[in-house]
Every structure is written in structure tokens, then in C-alpha cells.
């Protein structure tokens, strides 16, 4: 199983959710079940995903609303799996941001093949960490031009702030301790907490928040360090 590839399965029917998770697992990926749009938002805010399987008829926050929120915040591919097979529903979902639409009842092998196809394409477009462009949520960092944009607007960072953000975005799930960051960015031995790292993180947070007040990008894990959220 490739534990680096995570698929969020948003489906309120317990049996169908279990079946979809089994398909994802058999394909070698890590599934996470969510049974409502609200629960799915909690998972979407918590980490980056490689694919979302999304039912449209959900309790609370419905599939159309969730799809719109995902499209605004992320480039993750979304496959709609729904009993609502009307042509207009499909067109609306695809225009809102869905990458594919599968009508229930579905063929297991077809779902598996489409999951593989979209994950391959997403990984190819995202590129490895060594590529010139890194993305996370609505953040884009270009190593070649040394530029950062948030939701399409450029954010001016100092060299240290840029280096910290680049490190976070290259390893979006990793928790970096102050020692990790100091020794990686300053290339010196970390001799203890002099708050240098904390000040730079705070300044970086403030600049990102000013560019997009609706999102938080850097999480503090007390006693452990920092990571993207």
C-alpha cells in the first residue's frame, strides 16, 4: 500500500462507503471515510488529499456545496459518485469543479480504473518536491522566480520566510521542530530557543493571513513544532 496517497471517501450510505473504501484500499491507497459534508470539511482542513470521492446527496452540507468549497480551496481532483444521473446535474457538477462523474449503481473495476487515472494525472501535474512549482491549498510557490501567490495575489516574503515556506510545502505532512527549521534554513547548529524561528513563523503567518484571511496555513503543535494545515 502506498501510504503517501490519501483518498477521502464522502458517502453517507454506510455500505457504499465501506465498498468504496475497499476499492481504494485494493488499489493500494489509504482511504478515509466521511459520512457528511460537515465531517468531510474537517478532514479537508486537517491535511492535503490526493483524491476525493464525493456523493451529492449528503446530510448537512450537501455535495454541491462541498464541491464548491473544495474547488475554491484546492486543486485536488474530485470524482462525483451519485444516483443523481440527470444530464444537467452532471454538467453542473463538472462546471463547478468536479473532474469526473460516475452514476450509481457503479462498476467496481471502472471506479478503480478512474481512481488510478485521476491520481496519476494529479501526481504528474503536481510534480515531485524537486520541481520548480509547489502548491498547497491556494498557495503557489515558484522556486525559479522566487515568487509566492495566495489565491492568485502575490505575497512578498523575505529570503528566510520564502525558505521556510518552501520547506513546508515540499513536505506538507511533516512536522518541523524549531531545531529542524533553524538548522535547515540558517545552516547553523541549533543552540536552544532564542525565538528566531518563532518570529519568522509569526511574520510569515501574518503575511499569508493578510492575503487570505479565510484560511490558516501554518499550525503550531505545542511541544512538537510546526506544519502546514
Automatic annotation (TrEMBL):
Keywords: DNA-binding, Phosphoprotein, Transcription, Transcription regulation, Two-component regulatory system. InterPro entries: CheY-like_superfamily (IPR011006), OmpR/PhoB-type_DNA-bd (IPR001867), Sig_transdc_resp-reg_receiver (IPR001789), WalR-like (IPR039420), WH-like_DNA-bd_sf (IPR036388). Gene3D superfamilies: 3.40.50.2300, Winged helix-like DNA-binding domain superfamily/Winged helix DNA-binding domain. PROSITE patterns: OMPR_PHOB (PS51755), RESPONSE_REGULATORY (PS50110). The keyword Repressor does not apply. The modification 4-aspartylphosphate is found at residue 55. It comes from the Bacteria. Residues 6-119 form the Response regulatory domain. Residues 131-229 form the OmpR/PhoB-type domain. Residues 131-229 bind DNA. This is Response regulator transcription factor. It comes from Paenibacillus ehimensis.
Amino acid at each position: 500500500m502506498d501510504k503517501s496517497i490519501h483518498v477521502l471517501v464522502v458517502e453517507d450510505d454506510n455500505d457504499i462507503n465501506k465498498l468504496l473504501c475497499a476499492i481504494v484500499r485494493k488499489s493500494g491507497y489509504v482511504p478515509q471515510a466521511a459520512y457528511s459534508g460537515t465531517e468531510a470539511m474537517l478532514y479537508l482542513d486537517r491535511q492535503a488529499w490526493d483524491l476525493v470521492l464525493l456523493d451529492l446527496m449528503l446530510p448537512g452540507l450537501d455535495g454541491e456545496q462541498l464541491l464548491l468549497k473544495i474547488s475554491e480551496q484546492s486543486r485536488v481532483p474530485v470524482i462525483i459518485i451519485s444516483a443523481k444521473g440527470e444530464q444537467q446535474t452532471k454538467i453542473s457538477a463538472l462546471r463547478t469543479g468536479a473532474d469526473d462523474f460516475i452514476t450509481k449503481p457503479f462498476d467496481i473495476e471502472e471506479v478503480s480504473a478512474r481512481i488510478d487515472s485521476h491520481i496519476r494525472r494529479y501526481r504528474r501535474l503536481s510534480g515531485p518536491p524537486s520541481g520548480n512549482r509547489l502548491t498547497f491549498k491556494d498557495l503557489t510557490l515558484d522556486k525559479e522566480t522566487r515568487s509566492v501567490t495566495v489565491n492568485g495575489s502575490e505575497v512578498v516574503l523575505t529570503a528566510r520566510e520564502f525558505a521556510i515556506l518552501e520547506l513546508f510545502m515540499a513536505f506538507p505532512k511533516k512536522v518541523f521542530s524549531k531545531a529542524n527549521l533553524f538548522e535547515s534554513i540558517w545552516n547553523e547548529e541549533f543552540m536552544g530557543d532564542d525565538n528566531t524561528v518563532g518570529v519568522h513563523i509569526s511574520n510569515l503567518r501574518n503575511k499569508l493571513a493578510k492575503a487570505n484571511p479565510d484560511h490558516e496555513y501554518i499550525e503550531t503543535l505545542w511541544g512538537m513544532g510546526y506544519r502546514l494545515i
